[in-house]
Amino acid sequence: MSTPAPATHDTTVRARQILEHRGIRPTSQRVKVAEILLTSPRHLTAEQILVALREATGHVSKATVYNTLNLFVEQGLAREIHADPERCVYDSTMAPHHHFQNADTGEMTDIRPDDLSFARLPPLPPGTEIESVDVVIRVRRRV
């Protein structure tokens, strides 16, 4: 997983602009979460964001982090990747793409859509259409 960089004046300004552009009121806590997740391409769990916030600012509630992440997902600023049943990773890249997931470290790496192709897809259930295709290719270190 990528480690969040310390906030700078530039990342704070950028985070505030991202929120305001989507009509989200830039409270101090929302800006701090946005600085960590939204100012560069990242794949982070809520726990990683919580740890980064606590290291940088002291106390922040878990509920605040989850509520903010849910708001970002609802507003199209981040997407949830359910990499496995026990954790959810928040991805700041909203353009279509896929992922490698390192089974040893949990790290996720983006795959450009052009680097993956499908010869065919299975027939869709009646009355449905494709909304998106998300591929996670799990890899591990060779032994």
In short:
It contains four helices and six strands. It is α+β, with helices and mostly antiparallel strands and 143 residues long. The protein folds into two domains: 9-91, Arc Repressor Mutant, subunit A, CATH 1.10.10.10; 98-139, no CATH class.
Write structural notes for this entry.
With 143 residues, this protein is an alpha+beta fold. It has two domains: 9-91, Arc Repressor Mutant, subunit A, CATH 1.10.10.10; 98-139, no CATH class. The chain has helices at 9-21, 28-37, 46-57, 62-74; strands at 43-45, 79-84, 87-91, 98-102, 108-111, 136-139. It has a three-stranded antiparallel sheet with strand order 1-3-2. A three-stranded mixed sheet has the order 5-4-6, with no helix packed on it. Helix 3 crosses helix 4 (62-74). The longest helix is centred in the N-terminal third of the chain and has 13 residues, at 9-21. The radius of gyration is 17 Å and the shape is globular. It starts with 8 loop residues before the first helix and ends with a strand. The relative contact order is 0.14. The model has no long low-confidence stretch (mean pLDDT 91).
How many structural domains? 2
SSE pattern: HHEHHEEEEE
Strand tally is 6
CATH topology of the largest domain: Arc Repressor Mutant, subunit A
Strand order of the largest sheet: 1-3-2
Low-confidence stretches: none
Structural class: alpha+beta
Radius of gyration: 17 Å
State the helix count: 4
Name of the level-1 CATH class of the largest domain: Mainly Alpha
| Average pLDDT level | 91
Residue fraction in strands: 15-25%
Fraction of residues in H or I helices: 25-40%
CATH homologous superfamily of the largest domain, by name? Answer: Winged helix-like DNA-binding domain superfamily/Winged helix DNA-binding domain
Molecular shape? globular
CATH architectural designation of the largest domain: Orthogonal Bundle
Major sheet: 3 strands, antiparallel
Q: Could you tell me how far the N terminus lies from the C terminus, measured between alpha carbons in angstroms?
A: 22 Å
